[in-house]
Structure formats: C-alpha cells, structure tokens
Amino acid sequence: MVKILLLYMILVSGLLSQDSYEKNCVACHAELPTSLQRMFMRYLLVYGSEKNMKVGIKYYLKNPSQATSMMFDIFIESYGIKKRTTLSDKELEEAIDIYWEKFKVFGKLK
Questions:
Q1: Which of 45, 41, 57 has its CA nearest to residue 102?
Q2: CB 3.0 to 4.6 Å from 61: which of 2, 54, 85, 86, for a disulfide?
Q3: Domain residue limits, the chain
Q4: Most distant CA pair in the chain, distance
C-alpha cells in the first residue's frame, strides 16, 4: 500500500512539475515528423521578430486555418489543420514564451 501511494505521489508530482509548454505542446508534437525546433525556424523566417512571431503563433492557435498555417501543403494534407486551442490566454502566452526562450537564436550565436 505504501509503495502504491509513493508511486502515485511521484507520478502526480511529475505531472505538476511540467510547464505549459511541456504539457500542451511537446506531447502533441512528439507524434509529428517535424520537430518543434524546425517549426520554430520556419516561424522565425516568416515573422522575423520575437513580437511578430508570438502574435502569429497565438493567432494561429486560436484561429487555425490553412491560410494562416506555416506548414507546407503536403504536411497539412497528411496531418490536417490543428484544432483550436482550449488553453487560456495566460497558459497560451506562457507556452509561447517558453517556446521562444527554448529555441531562440538571438544572443546564442558567437
């Protein structure tokens, strides 16, 4: 009984320790053939700046469509358009901020 309770506590603490990005982005994208880092580079090429990129990602996640997607048509034909996010604005902004910090290249190049 004690072992089961301990295992349960470890599992729950692991779930609670994940941030919004890990819980809501990484899990779904793990199933896709394109990495989040590769998608980040595509967003950066299109939007060019942190502010524009964050606004673009947030808009797309709240209003997904083929017209606003950064993915290639072949990808969309294979995997479809993402469903609209159910995250609150706060959770969505937190996840996007973490995504930016994780993959940004500015300040990391020497």
A1: 41
A2: 85
A3: 19-103
A4: 55
